[in-house]
């Protein structure tokens, strides 16, 4: 919900018990407030190996190619020929790097695929055309799209509408923006009920038990603002499994070396040679398009890693040096009144 991610203020202060839990969650990853991250090395190890000289030579050749030459080389190698010049250049470099390192990686038994699944989330929330400073966004659509990291395909999806409580009447602007009608939310379940359904769906996929997984969002707002705010309003402890995620805007910007202005959803799609499929600001359609971007990045050689977490009620960056780990098995968070003091 890109237009909503530009405005808004923080909600109630984080409770002491939740703050302690968040600090413990991020302690192991040494979250940094600075969002700027250095790109990861192509491979940890001895860079004096001759293979890296070969890669450097290939990179130099690619850097001297114009767009037509890049596209022709991609076609020759049966790679996707869509995208702007920077994307094509990165695609070729990643292809050659992967080819050069493949035998070494196979010999060491290593793999670039840590996660079995990535779950894309893009909430839709209540909004006004000009949100007042104290406006509280309530989630009105809870969508998830599941990417199989081994096949690089979208394999399943989840969607539920949510009944808002603080602002039960949707604004005309919100209805027009999201396509979600008053009737749809009036007939929907409350957030706590929908969250239970979402957790059940994740559990049915055996995520966090049999399979390693993590979440991916388009920016920091979905987890750091919308979900955090909604849990406060619903008197629910923020779910442990959603405390860390991949912010695809950061991943895209770092991988393709582009400024933040080129990391909006439509811009990312266009730079990769794709068009938006569906209705903009429909949470499920947004999630599917974000998943398409993630899949293309993976095919271009990007190693998607968790790069943000929730710390003291605010999204923080996770340094590239942090250990790779999947999200814990999903559990339905308790209502505040159900906690054992």
Describe, in short, the structure shown.
The chain has helices at residues 16-27, 50-63, 67-76, 85-108, 172-178, 182-186, 191-204, 221-233, 248-256, 265-271, 283-299, and strands at 117-121, 124-125, 139-148, 153-161, 213-217, 244-247, 308-311, 314-317. By secondary structure, it is an alpha+beta fold.
Q: Can you tell me about this structure?
A:
There is one protein chain. This protein has 341 residues and is of the alpha+beta class. 39% of the residues lie in helices and 13% in strands. The chain contains eleven helices and eight strands. Strands 1, 2, 3, 4, 5, 6, 7 and 8 form an eight-stranded mixed beta sheet that branches. Helix 2 runs antiparallel to helix 4 (85-108) and helix 3 packs parallel to helix 4. The longest helix has 24 residues, at 85-108. Mean pLDDT is 85; it is low at 7-20, 29-46 and 105-111.
Write the layout of secondary structure elements.
Elements: H1 16-27, H2 50-63, H3 67-76, H4 85-108, E1 117-121, E2 124-125, E3 139-148, E4 153-161, H5 172-178, H6 182-186, H7 191-204, E5 213-217, H8 221-233, E6 244-247, H9 248-256, H10 265-271, H11 283-299, E7 308-311, E8 314-317
Parallel strand pairs: 1-5, 5-6
Antiparallel strand pairs: 1-3, 2-3, 3-4, 6-7, 7-8
Main location: cytoplasm
Keywords: Cytoplasm, Exonuclease, Hydrolase, Magnesium, Metal-binding, Nuclease, Nucleus, Phosphoprotein, RNA-binding, RNA-mediated gene silencing, rRNA processing
Enzyme class: hydrolase
